[in-house]
Amino acid sequence: MSLLEVRDLTTVFRTGRGEVTAVEDISFDLAEGEVLGIVGESGSGKSVTALTIMGLLPRPTARIRSGAIRFGGEDLTRLPESRMQRIRGPGIAMVFQEPMTSLNPVFSIGDQIMETIRAHEPLSPRAAFSRAVAMLEKVGIASAATRMADYPHQLSGGQRQRVMLAIALVCRPRVLIADEPTTALDVTIQAQILDLLLDLRDELGMAIILITHNMGVIAETADRVLVMYAGRIAEEAPVAGLFDAPLHPYTNGLLECVPSLTEDRARLVAIPGTLPEAHRRPPGCRYAPRCPLAAADCGHGLPPLRALVPGHRAACLRIAPS
Amino acid sequence: MTPLVEAVDITKHYDARHGGMFRAPAPPLRAVDGVSLSIMEGETLGLVGESGCGKSTLGRLLIRLLPVTGGTIRFAGTDISGLEGKALRAVRRSMQIVFQDPYGALNPRMTVEDIVMEPLVIHGAARDAAARVAEMLSLVGLPARARDRFPHEFSGGQRQRIGIARALVLRPKFVVCDEPVSALDVSVQAQIVNLLRDLQGELGLTYLFIAHDLGVVKHISDRVAVMYLGKVVEIAGKASLYQAPRHPYTRGLIASVPVTHPAQRRRGAGERHRLEGDIPSALNLPSGCRFHTRCPFVIDLCRQQEPVMTGGADGHLVACHRAQAIG
After folding, report:
1. Rounded distance, CA B11 to CA A220, Å?
2. Tell me: the pLDDT tens digits for B222-259?
3. Neighbour tally for A163: CB within 10 Å
4. pLDDT tens, residue by residue, A108-124
5. B307 vs B292: CA distance, rounded Å
6. Which of A41, A89, A291, B256 could join A188 in a cystine, given CB atoms 3.0 to 4.6 angstroms apart?
């Protein structure tokens, strides 16, 4: 029984050129305590997937056209906003890419953590304070009790991301969605934050959806991986299977084009072309115009996501089941 | 072989704030604090370090986009650190820069042709300009019909090609590439890196390649310099630097790069030489070795005395009191 089930989810945005599909027909499960990596480039739909689950889509620009998000016996797509507010925090919490803009500059970090606690639980100010201090210690902020009075501008980027994690985790969510949590940080700080995320997962037992464009971050953290391209799932696999035997040509390209520290190559293997914009997607497989394996039938109809190896699904006509 | 670009003990200090009438003036922010290095003709020197370490400032100093506070910059043997006016403009023809942000670096109201032609006009080389622009566009892999279009009609990777065309149209000798691929999608990064390499071979360019991605820097560079808080702490040929880093900071940086396969994960205390803490403020530099606050090998000497760059005949230089001991 999975903790979170996403079924046939489609999210559309209204634009000057008509409705465009940001996320199309995606389905996946998230198990208790699991780290699910979602990897894709800009425009792949990975962040919109997260915002859809959180019920934070910009309205009225965006809407869920179809599908279900089942969590704790309820379908989140049908809940009223008041009920959704009770789920954000103790049920599902989120950290964003920009630790600079996600914190309110005019409140101390202590106020911002305590606000979250007291929005969900009837704690006294004193109890909320000590709970906030304990959480700050847990995310690795030294001398936490005195730092409670600090304002966001007094903290470094890495510390702000730690505070964002404290706010997200202080209500003990069962699912944490982390959207590019380390993209704005230096590699040394990225390594610290990824270690911290995994330590907190072990300690608090929540499941994590980790959204990233970086295959290295996936290799470091994920148990299972979804690869998204132009709004659809291209491949889904356990992390070892994905890196050992990627099935989709796009996944292969993503793995090949990253220069490695351990081997030297005369030339990088580049994927030709660019991602199609949402209103100019090709008919048929969306990767076909860039794909080295594309044949005539790739241009007709979307390839279905099929289990080609047990537990390993890919949406590609050119790959035969083994 | 003589270096094409040579920096001798260059500094760039910014006045932090006025002290006020009765207060002592505040110490300056030392963005670049005594850097010496040379770049040989035809080579690519990679420059890495965390944000705020001064790597972009150093790149801009070398091409005189910013004036130095102290020290000497030589270009092809000539001291250019004090040049002004016409003489400065004349050397600038030979030194260009490719910026990180392909969205902000191009004027949205100019066509691609005007953007790429502008350097020719500024330097009075407008004869055959249209033909030179067309040639340049094809060299960077843009179709001829791109000429009359505007930057917003292009993807990030295509815009970076426009920025490269603009930088190279004057046929410079030396190009500073300041994080040229870090704003791009990974599938497009490789295209631009390959393009920069091809152009280097074709046009005989010398690069300073600034990036925070150690993998990309390793791929494109011949030698790599590592900066920390305004100083170069280690410089070496890339094989030597990546296989046998001598500075604890370089080791920490390399250990922080995510693995390329999940089987290489190393979790738990002591498993990795990861760096603790954040980079200190350049307004308030630590005493002695500026890395001592984060260094796992720190001894008293490190807190008191700043280490100088030393090294052997192999050209691998390092500024660390403990480099021998921890070897």
Report:
1. 39
2. 999 999 999 999 999 999 999 999 999 999 999 999 99
3. 26
4. 999 999 999 999 999 99
5. 11
6. B256
Token look-up 């394996």 returns A293
State the residue for tokens 């630790």. Answer: A99
Partner B contacted by A271 (CB < 8 A): yes
CATH hierarchy code of domain B3-15+27-94+172-244: 3.40.50.300
Between strands B3-14 and B29-40, the pairing is: antiparallel
Quote the CA–CA distance of B282 and B53 in Å, as a whole number: 8
**Cα–Cα–Cα angle for A201, A83, A15, nearest 5°?**
90
Three-state secondary structure call for residue A77: helix
Find which of B55, B185, B272 to mutate to test the A interface (most A CBs within 10 Å of its CB). Answer: B185
User: Are A192 and B276 within 8 A, CB to CB?
Assistant: yes
Rounded distance between C-alpha atoms, residue A181 and residue B24, angstroms = 41
pLDDT digits (tens, 9 = 90+) for A267-295: 888 898 888 888 889 989 999 999 999 99
The encoded tokens of residue B125 equal 């080389």
**Which positions in chain B touch A190 (Cβ < 8 Å)?**
256, 258
Q: How confident is the model at residue B20 (pLDDT cuts 50, 70, 90)?
A: low
pTM for the model: 0.90
Give which of B48, B260, B273, B281 to mutate to test A binding, by max A Cβ within 10 Å.
Answer: B260
Q: Comparing A18-27, B72-81, B264-273, B281-290, which segment has the lowest mean pLDDT?
A: B264-273
Which helix (H) or strand (E) is A71 found in, with range? Answer: strand A62-71
Return the HEC string of A23-76.
Answer: EEEEEEEECCCCEEEEECCCCCCHHHHHHHHHCCCCCCCEEEEEEEEEECCEEH
Q: Which amino acid is at B176?
A: V
Report ipTM (2 d.p.): 0.86
Spatial contact of A75 and A4, defined as CB atoms under 8 Å apart = no
Vertex B47: Cα angle to B44 and B49 (nearest 5):
165
Distance CA A313, CA A38 (A): 14
**Peptide bond preceding A60: is omega within 30 degrees of 0, i.e. cis?**
yes
What is the distance between the alpha carbons of residues B6 and B327, in angstroms, rounded to a whole number?
29
Are the beta carbons of A270 and B274 separated by less than 8 Å? no
Domain boundaries, chain B: 3-15+27-94+172-244
B259 — contact with chain A (CB < 8 Å)?
A: yes
CB A4 within 8 A of CB A53: yes
Return the pLDDT at B95. Answer: 96
The answer to whether residues A232 and A314 touch, using CB atoms and an 8 Å cutoff, is no
The DSSP symbol for B51 reads T
Minimal Cα–Cα distance from A310 to chain B, Å? 20
Residue A216 with chain B: CB contacts under 8 Å: 257-260
Chain B contact for A228 (CB, 8 A cutoff): no
Token pair belonging to B4: 């094409």
* Of B275, B154, A161, A299, residue with least CA distance to A169: A161
Angle at A85 (CA atoms; ends A79, A89), nearest 5 degrees: 125
Strand partners, B209: B46, B177
B257 interaction partners in chain A (CB closer than 8 Å): 187, 216, 261
Query: In B, residues 123-152, which contact A (CB 8 Å cutoff)?
Result: none
Percent of chain B whose pLDDT exceeds 70: 94
Residues linked to residue B317 through DSSP beta bridges, in sequence order: B235, B311
Spatial distance between the Cα atoms of B146 and B151, rounded to a whole number of angstroms: 9
Asked if A187's CB is within 8 angstroms of B212's CB, the reply is yes
**Residue B14: CB atoms within 10 Å:** 12
